[in-house]
């Protein structure tokens, strides 16, 4: 009698289990589509940020190249820092250091 009840109970549950598996699968598919879309938006946002940063980097490289021109440096020094060109008697020449010898006449270098 117990096996008859088990078979009958299982026959009643099978349609319910099938519907639950189907609904669960549909929810899983919907969730995966939503997650795919969310990640797609996140990748798009990061790509836009990357483009902005690349443009800023290129602009800064151009600004650096402009500032590294000797005439620009001289102009900045004259106008902003109020410096002037050195005269001949203002230039100090430093001689290279002579090697020092130890007691036996050998160089420390």
Strand coverage percent? under 5%
Q: Which overall shape is indicated by the principal axes computed on the Cα atoms?
A: elongated
The biggest sheet, with number of strands, parallel, antiparallel or mixed sense and barrel status, is: none
Number of beta-strand segments: 0
Distance between the termini: 106 Å
Order of helices and strands: HH
Number of helices: 2
Which blocks of ≥5 consecutive residues have pLDDT under 50? none
Q: Briefly note the structural class of the backbone.
A: mainly alpha
What's the average pLDDT? 84
* Rg result: 41 Å
Q: Helicity level, as a percent range?
A: 55-70%
Structure description:
The protein is an all-alpha fold. The protein has a domain at 10-84. 70% of the residues lie in helices and 0% in strands. The protein contains 2 helices and no strands. It has helices at 2-67, 70-79.
Keywords:
about 110 residues, mainly alpha, 2 helices, about 70% helix
Could you write a compact summary of the structure shown?
With 109 residues, this protein is mainly α. The protein is 70% helix and 0% strand. The protein is built from two helices and no strands.
């Amino acid at each position: 009698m117990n096996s008859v009840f088990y078979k009958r109970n299982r026959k009643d549950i099978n349609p319910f289990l099938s519907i639950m598996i189907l609904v669960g699968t549909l929810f899983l598919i919907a969730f995966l589509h939503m997650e795919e879309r969310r990640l797609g938006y996140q990748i798009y946002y990061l790509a836009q940020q990357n483009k902005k940063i690349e443009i800023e980097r290129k602009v800064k490289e151009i600004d650096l190249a402009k500032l590294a021109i000797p005439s620009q440096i001289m102009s900045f020094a004259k106008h902003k820092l109020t410096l002037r060109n050195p005269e001949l008697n203002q230039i100090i020449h430093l001689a290279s250091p002579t090697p020092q010898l130890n007691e036996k006449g050998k160089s420390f270098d």
